[in-house]
Write a structure and sequence with these properties.
CATH topology: Rossmann fold
Number of strands: 7
CATH architecture: 3-Layer(aba) Sandwich
Shape: globular
Mean pLDDT: 92
Distance between the termini: 38 Å
Strand order of the largest sheet: 3-2-1-4-5-7-6
Number of helices: 7
Order of helices and strands: HEHEHEHEHEHEHE
Number of domains: 1
Strand content: 15-25%
Radius of gyration: 17 Å
Structural class: alpha/beta
Largest sheet: 7 strands, mixed
Helix content: 25-40%
CATH superfamily: Vaccinia Virus protein VP39
CATH class: Alpha Beta
Length: 223
């Protein structure tokens, strides 16, 4: 179902333009463009693909002020909420570092946005499971996507996945076997496991927890 365009969305997005990136990202350094303030350069750089309304990325940015974060979302009427949420967070807590930037785009173009080996982490939270027969190549953990992630992750960089969908989780575990990743850990019930320490919840995740749905999660290292 197509999401309706939000009222005044273009103007609202424009108001948050300082948080948006509209050109390929480059490694920060002397004389090189970076969308972040100079004093924040040098830390690990993480990426969330499919940031939704922004709860996860805003929570991560606050919990890890030493890191830089990018968040990609292809639907502008959805990323609008994430932009406004981050802008409100910075206004309410001006002591927070300005360490998040957003990209309106598709995950299939990740290698066009980020230099090879430039990211320390990629997060996939509750991605569309594409359950219809024949749609598996659209899943964000299909091997072609995993190859793209491997390009932009530094050696030793990590891929983190959370999903409520058992079929997508099983599919992801199988696809990782054919990709340049080493599985570090997995769990079928994140919130009852040791891996929940430091976990930042998404808006979907909170709803699933309230409904008693177990969350699948894993982390894999780029070889």
């Amino acid at each position: 179902m197509r999401m309706r365009k939000k009222k005044n969305s273009d103007a609202r997005i424009a108001k948050c333009a300082g948080l948006l990136v509209d050109q390929p990202v480059k490694i920060a350094g002397e004389g090189i463009y970076s969308p972040f303030p100079n004093e924040l350069h040098g830390g690990p750089v993480a990426l969330e693909l499919g940031c939704g309304k922004g709860d996860f990325i805003c929570g991560m940015a606050k919990a890890h002020p030493e890191r830089l974060f990018y968040a990609v979302e292809r639907i502008d009427s959805v990323i609008l909420f994430a932009l406004e949420k981050r802008a409100a967070q910075l206004e309410a807590e001006p002591e927070l570092p300005d360490n998040v930037r957003f990209i309106i785009g598709d995950a299939s173009h990740v290698a066009e946005w980020f230099p090879a080996g430039s990211l320390s982490e990629i997060h996939l939270n509750f991605s569309d499971p594409w359950p219809k027969k024949g749609y598996y190549k659209r899943r964000m953990t299909y091997r072609a996507f995993l190859e793209l992630y491997a390009q932009v992750l530094a050696p030793g960089g990590e891929l983190h996945v959370k999903t409520d969908n058992d079929i997508l989780f099983d599919f992801t575990l199988e696809e990782l076997k054919s990709a340049p990743f080493e599985l570090l850990w997995q769990t079928r019930d994140l919130h009852s496991s040791e891996y929940c320490i430091g976990n930042i919840e998404t808006e979907y995740e909170r709803r699933f927890i309230e409904e008693g749905v177990s969350i699948n999660a894993l982390a894999a290292r780029r070889l």
